[in-house]
Amino acid sequence: MSTSLPEHALDRLQDRLERLPLRERKKLKTRRAIQDHALRLFTEQGYDETTVEQIAEAAEISPSTFFRYFRTKEDVVITDEYDPIMAEIFRAQPAGTGVIEALRATFREILPQMLAGDMDTVITRMRLTAQVPALRARTTESLREGTHAVLKEIIAERTGRPQDDLDVETFTWALLGVLQSAMYAWLDGKVEIEDLPDLIDHNLELVATGFPL
Which PROSITE patterns does the record associate with it (predicted)? Predict the structure, then answer.
């Protein structure tokens, strides 16, 4: 399994971000700056040993400003801007395309963009999430509030079902399991980071065929 990241992936991501309103772009720039300083400090001195006050000082902001951008210290690791982009790509898939195929097309586009634009950040965030118990706990809660909610919304739209449909709920959690299984395959050294788009696509194909083991 080997994937080379498309050279134009970063350009596509940048184009999507540049289409955001000016206010949103400014907020995103500040949020990324805070996150960059936080991840650097976590790497240098450890997650538990780093305080919000230290992150704020490094980013040249006040602690109160930190909490305007991130609800908790854990959120500075697990928060990113990709869910709205994922939803935009999914909704742009041709009418009549099934959910799995639309998801495969979405992840084939967005994952190379993420890796091309934020490879080091993605790696650091994934490792911290796997290693720090507080982050693993907050990730589960955040997934339900963020990525799970976005996926459930767009899947319900495409299938014409209500968002509280139990089958939609179950399918969405299964999909998150597919994504997490790929993450742990990388953490366990079974695949390279560049292989994740192919692995996730394979896992989604496995779901589509009913897991014929």
Answer: HTH_TETR_2 (PS50977)
